[in-house]
Amino acid sequence: xxxxxxxxxxxxxxxxxxxxxxxxxxxxxxxxxxxxxxxxxxxxxxxxxxxxxxxxxxxxxxxxxxxxxxxxxxxxxxxxxxxxxxxxxxxxxxxxxxxxxxxxxxxxxxxxxxxxxxxxxxxxxxxxxxxxxxxxxxxxxxxxxxxxxxxxxxxxxxxxxxxxxxxxxxxxxxxxxxxxxxxxxxxxxxxxxxxxxxxxxxxxxxxxxxxxxxxxxxxxxxxxxxxxxxxxxxxxxxxxxxxxxxxxxxxxxxxxxxxxxxxxxxxxxxxxxxxxxxxxxxxxxxxxxxxxxxxxxxxxxxxxxxxxxxxxxxxxxxxxxxxxxxxxxxxxxxxxxxxxxxxxxxxxxxxxxxxxxxxxxx
Amino acid sequence: xxxxxxxxxxxxxxxxxxxxxxxxxxxxxxxxxxxxxxxxxxxxxxxxxxxxxxxxxxxxxxxxxxxxxxxxxxxxxxxxxxxxxxxxxxxxxxxxxxxxxxxxxxxxxxxxxxxxxxxxxxxxxxxxxxxxxxxxxxxxxxxxxxxxxxxxxxxxxxxxxxxxxxxxxxxxxxxxxxxxxxxxxxxxxxxxxxxxxxxxxxxxxxxxxxxxxxxxxxxxxxxxxxxxxxxxxxxxxxxxxxxxxxxxxxxxxxxxxxxxxxxxxxxxxxxxxxxxxxxxxxxxxxxxxxxxxxxxxxxxxxxxxxxxxxxxxxxxxxxxxxxxxxxxxxxxxxxxxxxxxxxxxxxxxxxxxxxxxxxxxx
Lengths: 362, 362
Known about the structure:
2 copies of one chain form a homodimer. Chain A is 48% helix and 15% strand. Chain A is α/β, with parallel strands linked by helices and 362 residues long. Chain A folds into 2 domains: 1-128 and 303-334, Isopropylmalate Dehydrogenase (3-Layer(aba) Sandwich); 132-297, 3-Layer(aba) Sandwich (Isopropylmalate Dehydrogenase). An 11-stranded mixed sheet of chain A has the order 3-2-1-4-11-10-5-6-9-7-8, sandwiched between helices. In chain A, α6 packs across α7 and α6 runs antiparallel to α11 (335-359). Mean pLDDT of chain A is 88; it is low at 1-5. The interface between A and B is large, with 59 and 59 residues.
């Protein structure tokens, strides 16, 4: 079964309709939103076909924009990645990746279990030649003109050595160029201080490696940055291991949420503060929109043969639509091919640099 | 030279007047504030005596509450810790710690260079028997009834193995009991997920060790927690290595600051939003007070023979006064002695547990 004739010339996004916290309803609502806004996207939808057809009809997704792949099984949030890799062949997640692997879609989007999605992606799509550890990159609200910084890895793997961090820098630069139209992104390496003698041994080694590659890979290396620079304007791309990155974004999210809750409490404290909140509502909504996580929904898996986007499990229709838009933007820019070429051109050289560095005891 | 007779019966805090971003003026202003609020504190003040005497007179610190130790040198923010350890004998920071070492003060407070303060503290005060790595503990705004969580280590060392993390749990529990009056604090171990199979190898080992000690050390171990739990209500004490902890708090601080700035921008957008901001000002100040970092100013160095508190380099008088209050509270509760006893009683046992675990390949 191939894409229908109506899909010709379109950018095709493969969507795992299952596995989100709120079920397939919001995923289809997101698709409907994207389909209305952008006539150049076609969808391949994976999940129980009968159920999905009803939802597509209900949401009035325009004719001929969706084809279906019937899959009986669903990956749940509780499923262990190793279990899904062995037994997940009939799941919508597996099927969604299969469309990318076979080349019938330009990218995949799923709201499902992150660990399982990464494990399946690595097994089915395989790592790009030259990449040791794939990474998950997210966008984080920042003071930069583009409004967001890229940060990676935020949880594909809990470890990263110096060469992995170099790959993250190359992949992050490529993502910032293609996803955010920054011609010469500034890369920062996350550490506990900005002095060159600080931090863990692998960070000093990575500092030297990334420095060596900056010119050739067309990015600016701003050196070490700190946690406060993740929402700052010193760098566009923040490079770190998946353990640190995951803790950092969850701390930032948790702190933002606490402030939001306390702000609501503060405004409901007295009749006067409730009146103020009515007058302030436009201002507060303007702020909310500026840092709305739904606008930047979507962790991109980098370092694989194909683009996979992990949408937040709790995403609503706006969030799903944002993840689809990101997949579309990246596909349109030819990101997957450019990234593969970039990594391939630097992989051998990185190998040489690392070897000579370890030989000279640098 | 010993404390003056007026100081008898008081709790004596040794204060390094130099090294803060704004100079000794704000430090003395903070001391004046504390002295007026609390008649039971006496101060030993370290720095250039002539300059300090003038500031003390200007701020009208009550008579007989301050004695001086004249020191010509100052540790700057740029000084490397190793340099200060070798050449810092005439600095106010060294002298401030000396008062604790000699037993003439119950604790020390400094706004100076964190790395130098930790290095000097380790050299002059020495680690408690049974402690391998000291830790810096801070308070973080949270949803808990006490309003704050303890987090450690936030930057004493970039590494921590399983036994260090156990020590952090014991020290953090003791700090929460004595500094925040929580009789049975809940301890969480920071990881990238809450499932027991997740994360780095040393975290799984630490999970088992901390579990084993919970009953004996009179705390609840809630297991793995995530970055979002640092401002949450699942645990009172968050245990992590100094690299991760440092990145987490700086990310949280940076995110909070970004939201504050954007909130101000949102409220100055139009005449109506400016009007709303006038009406909202009490609500916003209530929020600001709730999460004001100055209220919880002070990283406590744990695991040394003596209490050392690092006040923020940019602290104002309110911040310095908060750090002094924390030193006072801890001294009054006999924290240093209780912590030493706690660590000593568990150190040998931890050794046994770790050895038998490594023998059985657990």
